[in-house]
Every structure is written in C-alpha cells, then in structure tokens.
Design a protein that fits this description.
Blueprint (H helix, E strand, L loop, with lengths): L3 E4 L2 E4 L6 E3 L4 E2 H19 L3 E6 L9 E3 L12 E4 L6 E5 L3 H9 L2 E5 L9 E11 L5 H17 L5 E4 L5 E11 H18 L4 E2 L11 E4 L9 E2 L15 E2 L1 H5 L11 H11 L17
Parallel strand pairs: 13-14
Antiparallel strand pairs: 1-2, 3-4, 5-6, 5-8, 5-9, 7-8, 9-15, 10-12, 10-14, 11-12, 11-16
Helix pairs in contact: 1-2, 1-6
Length: about 290
C-alpha cells in the first residue's frame, strides 16, 4: 500500500520509498524526498514564481531520463499551474510555490530546471547565467579560472556574480538583473563570452561546435534565451551519485585545485547551509539587482 503523508495539510501518496535510485551510494527515493524536504527553505525561493521543467529519472540515472514541461497527468488540483507562452503555442506548466508542491514534485524523481524570468513577466529576464562546461581533459578546475575572469569582467559593469556547481562537470555563474528582454541579456552574455575567448584563447570557446571544445571551457551564453532553462540551485542531478547543483563561495572557486574539491552530494548540503546559509540568497534581494550596461 502506498503510504499517505500529510505535508502542511496536503495529502501526498509517496511511493517506492525504499527504491535505490543512486546505486553507487545506495541512495534511496526516501532519501531523495528527505533531502528536498530538509533543503526546502533554501530551494523554494529559487523555484517560486518560475515555471518548472522537470528532468525525470524515475528508475535512477541509468534508466529512462526525460523532460516534462507540461503539467504531468495526475497533478493535484492544489498545485499551482500557469499558462506560459512558447514558440509552438501556449502551454500550462507547474509552479512549485510551497513545501507540499515540492514534495509532490520530488516524488516524481526529478531535476528542477527554471528559466531566467518569472511567470508574470515571461521573456523579461531578471537573471543572467553562464554555464561553464569543460571539454575533457579540461575539468571544473579550468571552469573556476574562467569564472574568476567573468566575475571580474561583470564587476566592471556593476554586476555581482555568484557561483554554483552544475552538479555535473561544470560551474554556473548567476547574477540578479533589473528585468530586461531575454534577447538583450543573451546578446550581452554572448559579448562577454566572446571577450573571454579573446582574453584566454587557449582556455575558452564561445561557440557550441563540439570539435572546438576538447581541453577548453565552453562559456554557454545561450541559456539566457527565454526558451531555455538552467538547473535550479540545490537541485539533485541524475548522475551516478546524488550530486547537487550547490552554491559555492568565491574562496572555494579560487582554491579549486582538483576536480573533486567542488563535488557536493545530498548529505553535504545541510552542513553547508548551516555554515554558510544560502550563498545564492543575494539573487533574491531586489536591492542587489543591476541594470545591463
């Protein structure tokens, strides 16, 4: 029988809690749900008011992995949804606004991906993002070098950047903006990616062409496009181990001398939150938004 759990007055049927989703560490679905419930205070503000794309992996990362953008069948009527414009026509998507919605979504076994805009202003970006993706044999160590250059360059334009691991191989940089058209933000991000390649031609590539990427860091500026999404801070990833897209300090970025230094698993996050709080919290403060130059 599927157990029924009450979460802030909402009835939730949580299934297969003993199922191992991450065989490398025997991390179960129940532990996934516990992780999200105990990280909710930090995670929810980064999800709130942003339509969520789910990258689902119900049988673990070695099973079927698929994106869900539309409201999944069987979604409870108390989960907030909204109509969102898309190039192929409007779609109804989920907004994870509270703890019951988060636990319900986590029960689907998912990565959380969100756009750089909120639902009330689609296509008006209030975030800038760079996805730094290393082409082997480059690693996150090289990503950190590029991140430090981008941080300084953004600072010259009055924009404060914050870093997090992708939870995969690379690093994400985010900044809070005064809302601006996504196309304009994408253009600005591309300009900086091109500048980074000119400054560090042996280390950086700004084009997506895969043949150019071995041994270099691809500065992906395209995730600023209105149609694109990025892994949300604190989301678990569908990897061999329960890695997290974890915010990191700039000191950690500066001191990154080996790839393993910036790998964080689900059990690492509660102690980090206790020590640092939410390192991405400045993104949520309207006083920290910056205009595009």
């Amino acid at each position: 029988m599927t157990p029924i759990t009450m979460v802030e007055g909402r009835r939730l049927a949580l299934s297969n809690l003993e199922k191992v989703l991450y065989p490398a560490t025997a991390f179960t679905k129940g532990e996934v749900l516990h992780y999200y419930a105990t990280t909710a205070d930090a995670l929810l503000p980064h999800l709130r008011d942003r339509p969520v794309s789910f990258l689902r992996y119900p049988d673990g990362p070695d099973g079927q992995v698929f994106f869900t953008k539309n409201v999944p069948p069987g979604t409870p009527d108390w989960v907030t949804t909204a109509e969102v414009p898309r190039s192929e026509g409007p779609a109804r998507m989920v907004l994870v606004q509270d703890l019951p919605s988060l636990v319900w979504a986590a029960n689907l076994v998912t990565e959380f991906h969100t756009p750089q805009w909120i639902v009330d202003a689609p296509g008006e970006a209030d975030r800038l993002v760079f996805d730094l993706d290393p082409g082997p044999p480059a690693t996150i160590v090289e990503c950190c070098r590029v991140a430090l250059w981008l941080r300084e360059r953004l600072g010259e334009d009055g924009i404060d950047a914050y870093a997090k691991t992708s939870g995969s191989k690379g690093l994400h940089l985010l900044a809070a903006l005064r809302p601006a058209p996504s196309a304009r933000v994408t253009e600005y991000a591309k300009e900086l990616a091109v500048a980074a390649e000119k400054a560090m031609p042996r280390l950086v590539v700004h084009r997506m062409t895969r043949s150019l990427r071995p041994g270099k860091v691809f500065v992906d500026w395209s995730q600023n496009a209105a149609r694109k999404t990025t892994a949300t801070p604190y989301t678990l990833r569908a990897r061999a181990e329960p890695t997290v897209s974890a915010p990191v300090t700039w000191e950690e970025v500066e001191d990154c001398g080996s790839p393993g230094r910036l790998v964080f698993l689900a059990p690492d996050i509660a102690p980090r939150l206790q020590d640092h709080g939410d390192l991405m919290a400045p993104l949520l403060d309207p006083r920290n938004t910056a205009p595009l130059p």
